[in-house]
């Protein structure tokens, strides 16, 4: 079980940009194709912009054509949580950081093998650390 990080809204506001706060803490969505790494061919591990927890490895990244960074698997089963999201009346599955509950995006069952999943993630919710 991952130990949770809890901060007040004011603490998150001080730590994040207005766009990061809107998407990660208020469960927003960035505009498609707006993040420079939505289809970038890069190396490293993406970490949560809020708490720094590792989330997705670039080895699992693929160009889904949707305009958001997409992955077929997280770095570990413990990295994320996937609660139901019924805010829009659809039966969506949300992706949140297991450590700080930051909204990251949604997961869909139309991804590539071997999982068949597409973790569609807001780029503004992640920072990429290159291998050392």
Describe the structure.
The protein is α+β, with helices and mostly antiparallel strands and 132 residues long. It has one domain (9-129): Beta Complex (Metal Binding Protein, Guanine Nucleotide Exchange Factor, Chain A), CATH 2.170.150.20. It has helices at residues 9-15, 18-25, and strands at 45-48, 54-57, 61-62, 70-71, 80-81, 84-85, 92-97, 103-108, 118-121, 126-129. Strands 3, 4, 5, 6, 7, 8 and 9 form a 7-stranded antiparallel beta sheet that branches. The protein has a 3-stranded antiparallel beta sheet with strand order 2-1-10, with no helix packed on it. The protein starts with 8 loop residues before the first helix and ends with a strand.
CATH topology tier name: Metal Binding Protein, Guanine Nucleotide Exchange Factor, Chain A
Radius of gyration (CA) equals: 14 Å
- Count of extended strands: 10
Report on the biggest sheet: 7 strands, antiparallel
- Classify the oligomer: single chain
Please identify which CATH superfamily we are dealing with.
Answer: Peptide methionine sulfoxide reductase
| Residue share in β-strands | 25-35%
CATH architecture: Beta Complex
